[in-house]
Amino acid sequence: MSVAQKMEVWEIARVFAASESGVRRVLQHYRERGTHLPLPRNAGRKLQMTDSIAQQIREFIAARPDATRQQIKDALGLVVSLQAISEWLARPARSAAPRAGAGSGDGRGAKLLRDSRRRRPALALARRF
User: Fold this and answer.
1) 24-48 burial, b if ≥16 CB within 10 A, otherwise e?
2) Residues 36, 29 contacting (CB under 8 angstroms)
3) How far apart are CA 30 and CA 66, in angstroms?
4) Pairwise CA distance, residues 99 & 102, whole Å
């Protein structure tokens, strides 16, 4: 038996300076999944439309530019919705080369922009009243 199994929830919370509810949640996750780690972020629904299917659609449209979405779906035997086909048609073709001005790729660009907008002094003053 490990030390954690002998300790009460409130004792573990005190040791780690955490809330009891947080400790209970971590212990529950551990019992259910066998690990304390969170679920992976890509645990949701998987995309049905792959790059190869999108390429097939683009080739089909190049051959038949007047084809409807339903005709594309039937001709290629796709199991995706007509909306998914529309969304892929509206996207620009992807390339392996990075976009110009894409930044460092650390994913912080949009967050920094949001933070800078949030911290404008004029807006902060207006929010007080």
Assistant:
1) eeeeeeeeeeeeeeeeeeeeeeeee
2) yes
3) 55
4) 5
State pTM to two decimals: 0.39
- pLDDT tens-digit profile of 75-92? 988 888 888 888 877 877
CA 18 → CA 24, 25, 30, 111, distances in Å?
10, 11, 17, 28
112 vs 49: CA distance, rounded Å: 31
State pLDDT tens for residues 6-30.
889 999 999 999 999 999 998 998 8
Residue with tokens 């009891």: 20
**Tokens read off for 56:** 């097939």
18/11 Cα distance (integer angstroms): 10
Q: Which stretches of the chain are assigned E, i.e. beta strand? A: none
SS3 of 76-107: the string is HCCCCCHHHHHHHHHCCCCCCCCCCCCCCCCC
Domain ranges within the chain, ordered by starting residue = 3-33, 51-90
